[in-house]
Amino acid sequence: QVQLVESGGRLVQAGGSLRLSCAASGRAFSNYAAGWFRQTPGKERDFVAAISTSGESTWYADSVKDRFTISRDNAKNTLYLQMNNLKPEDTAVYYCNLKFGISEYWGQGTQVTVSS
What we know:
The structure is a single chain. Helices cover 0% and strands 56% of the residues. The chain is an all-beta fold. Strands 2, 4, 5, 6, 9, 10 and 11 form a seven-stranded mixed beta sheet that branches. A hairpin with a 6-residue loop joins strand 5 and strand 6 (58-60). The radius of gyration is 13 Å and the shape is globular.
């Protein structure tokens, strides 16, 4: 079993930056591919970014490419999402995700609100 706790979400002005963190406890964090997703009311949860177990490979949604950076520190069991040049359309609840085989875990989410 893995528990995930996100933090770092808050209200920020457009053009600003935030760094989200996702602390993992339980089984070996480094065994899991990891990612960030986001969701707004009434809409599906959308993919934002993903990272391989070692951190060598990353993938991004087109909407955040060149603005967001996903990273991980396997020694600290923590996943990060650095978000720069934030836009009002980035407003959402952000969730971290770990996946290994058929095992998948989600955090409780952290609210990011970008004001124009």
